[in-house]
C-alpha cells in the first residue's frame, strides 16, 4: 500500500485559534457557580493559580515538541524519552480522553438545545452535530481551521459584549458599584486552601492547549511554531478567564444567592442583560461547544493515525491517509461513529475518564523532559540546565500529582480499569512481552514534508 503523508499548511495563528476553540472560552460560565462558592468569591485568584500551574506543563510540552515533533504528543514523548511501554500506557490513557472529549461537547449541546427547544429530542441534536462535524473534518484540516477562526471570533464577540454590559451596569451602581477592588484576589478572612480548592475545579478550563501538538505533522516549522502557539493559547485563555471572572464578581458579588449553582453563569447573564442577550449568549455557548468538538474530533483522528502508523493499532486501517484529502479518513469516520455513545453515556462518567487521562499525560510529559534532557543527554552541567531540565519539570509533575490526589474515587477506578485492559492488549500485542513494543520512526516521516 502506498504511504501518503499529511499536508503541512498550519501556521502560528491558525494553531492558536484551534487551541482556543478546544479550550472553549465560555466554559467559565459552566464552572463559575461552584468555583465562586468554593473560593468564597475569589474565582480570579484561583484562575491565577491555575494559569501559573499550566505554564509549567506548557514549558515541558514545548521542550519535548522541539526534539520529537510527532502527532503522538505525550504518547510519543514518553515512548522515546522514557520507554516504549511507558509510551504505550500514556497513549492508552490519553486515547480515552481524546475520544470522550468530543462526546462531552455533543452531550452538552444536546442538553441545552433540547431545553431551549423542548419539541426536539436531545438525540436528534447530538446526531446532527456529529454528522456535521465529521463531514467538515473529512474535507480537510485547513477548512476546519478557517471555520474555527469564525467560531472563536463569535465567542469572543459574545463574551466581549457581555463584559461591556457588565461594566455599564457596575458604573450604574449594580453589584459592588466599583470597577476596581482587590477582593476578588485577596480577602483577609478567606483561606488560601479555599482558593486552591477552586483552582483544582478550574483546571478543566485550560484543557486543550496540548491538543494542537497532534497537528505537528501538518504545521509549518513545528519545532518553533508549536511551543509559541501553546504559550499563546494558555496566556490568552488565562487572561480572558481572569478578566471575565473579575468583572462577573464585581457585577454579581453575592455568590451564595444562586438558585442553581450549576447554572449560575446563566443566572448572572440573565440578571445583567435580560432575555434578549441571554438567547444570544445561549447561541454563543452552543457554538463554543461546536468549535471544541470539531477540534477534538480532528485531534483524536490524528492521534489514532500516529498509533496506527506505529503498528500499536492495526496499521492498514488506523495508519491510512486519504490520497485525495490528505486526512486520516477512516479514523475521522470511526470517531464519528464512536461519538454516538454520547446518546447513552452520562456527564459524570465522561468527566471521570477525561480527568484521569489528562493527568496521566501531563505528568509523563514532565517526566519525559527530565528523562531526555537531564538523564539521557546529561544536560546538568550548570545551574541553568539543572533548573531547566530538572527543577521546572519536577514542579510541573508535582502539581499534576497533587491534582491526582483530588480525583474522585470513581475516576481512579474507571481509569485503573482502562489501564488494566491496556495491559492485557499490550501482552497480546507483544506475545506476552517476548516481542518489543512497536515504536514511531520519526526520521522517516520528517523527510517527507508536503506543501
Automatic annotation (TrEMBL):
It comes from the Bacteria. Coiled coil: none annotated. The chain crosses the membrane at residues 12-35, 41-61, 82-100, 120-140, 147-170, 190-209, 229-252, 282-306, 327-347, 353-374, 386-405, 411-430. Its main location: membrane. It is a multi-pass membrane protein. Pfam families: AA_permease. It is found in: Membrane. Residues 20-378 form the Amino acid permease/ SLC12A domain. Keywords: Membrane, Transmembrane, Transmembrane helix. InterPro entries: AA-permease/SLC12A_dom (IPR004841), APC_superfamily (IPR050367). This is APC family permease. The lineage of its organism: Bacteria, Bacillati, Bacillota, Bacilli, Bacillales.
Amino acid at each position: 500500500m502506498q504511504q501518503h503523508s499529511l499536508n503541512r499548511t498550519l501556521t502560528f495563528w491558525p494553531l492558536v485559534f484551534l487551541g482556543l476553540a478546544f479550550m472553549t472560552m465560555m466554559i467559565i460560565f459552566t464552572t463559575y457557580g461552584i468555583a465562586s462558592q468554593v473560593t468564597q468569591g475569589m474565582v480570579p485568584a484561583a484562575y491565577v493559580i491555575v494559569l501559573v500551574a499550566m505554564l509549567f506543563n506548557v514549558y515541558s510540552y514545548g521542550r519535548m515538541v522541539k526534539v520529537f515533533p510527532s502527532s503522538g504528543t505525550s504518547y510519543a514523548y514518553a515512548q522515546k524519552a522514557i520507554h516504549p511501554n511507558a509510551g504505550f500506557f500514556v497513549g492508552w490513557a490519553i486515547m480515552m480522553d481524546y475520544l470522550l472529549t468530543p462526546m462531552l461537547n455533543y452531550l452538552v449541546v444536546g442538553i441545552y438545545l433540547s431545553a431551549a427547544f423542548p419539541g426536539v429530542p436531545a438525540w436528534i441534536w447530538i446526531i446532527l452535530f456529529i454528522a456535521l462535524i465529521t463531514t467538515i473534518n473529512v474535507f480537510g484540516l485547513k477548512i476546519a481551521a478557517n471555520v474555527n477562526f469564525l467560531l472563536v471570533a463569535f465567542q469572543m464577540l459574545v463574551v466581549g459584549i457581555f463584559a461591556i454590559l457588565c461594566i455599564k451596569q457596575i458604573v450604574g451602581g449594580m453589584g459592588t458599584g466599583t470597577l476596581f477592588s482587590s477582593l476578588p484576589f485577596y480577602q483577609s478572612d478567606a483561606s488560601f486552601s479555599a482558593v486552591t480548592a477552586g483552582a483544582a475545579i478550574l483546571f478543566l478550563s485550560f484543557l486543550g492547549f496540548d491538543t494542537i501538538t497532534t497537528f505537528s505533522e501538518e504545521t509549518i516549522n513545528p519545532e518553533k511554531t508549536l511551543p509559541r502557539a501553546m504559550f499563546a493559547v494558555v496566556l490568552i485563555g488565562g487572561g480572558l478567564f481572569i478578566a471575565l471572572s473579575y468583572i462577573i464578581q464585581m457585577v454579581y458579588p453575592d455568590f451564595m444567592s444562586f438558585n442553581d449553582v450549576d447554572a449560575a453563569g446563566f443566572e448572572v447573564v440573565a440578571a445583567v442583560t435580560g432575555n434578549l442577550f441571554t438567547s444570544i449568549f445561549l447561541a454563543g455557548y452552543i457554538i463554543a461547544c461546536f468549535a471544541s468538538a470539531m477540534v477534538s474530533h480532528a485531534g483524536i483522528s490524528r492521534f489514532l493515525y500516529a498509533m496506527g502508523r506505529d503498528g500499536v493499532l492495526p496499521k492498514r486501517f488506523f495508519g491510512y491517509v486519504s490520497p485525495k484529502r490528505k486526512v486520516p479518513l477512516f479514523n475521522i469516520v470511526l470517531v464519528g461513529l464512536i461519538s454516538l455513545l454520547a446518546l447513552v453515556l452520562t456527564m459524570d462518567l465522561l468527566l471521570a475518564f477525561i480527568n484521569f487521562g489528562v493527568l496521566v499525560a501531563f505528568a509523563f510529559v514532565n517526566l519525559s523532559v527530565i528523562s531526555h534532557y537531564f538523564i539521557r543527554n546529561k544536560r546538568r552541567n550548570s545551574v541553568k540546565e539543572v533548573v531547566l531540565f530538572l527543577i521546572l519539570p519536577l514542579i510541573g509533575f508535582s502539581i499534576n500529582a497533587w491534582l491526582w490526589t483530588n480525583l474522585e474515587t470513581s475516576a481512579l477506578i474507571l481509569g485503573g480499569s482502562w489501564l488494566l485492559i491496556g495491559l492485557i492488549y499490550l501482552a497480546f500485542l507483544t506475545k506476552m512481552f517476548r516481542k518489543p513494543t512497536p515504536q514511531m520512526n520519526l526520521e522517516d516521516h520528517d523527510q517527507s514534508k508536503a506543501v
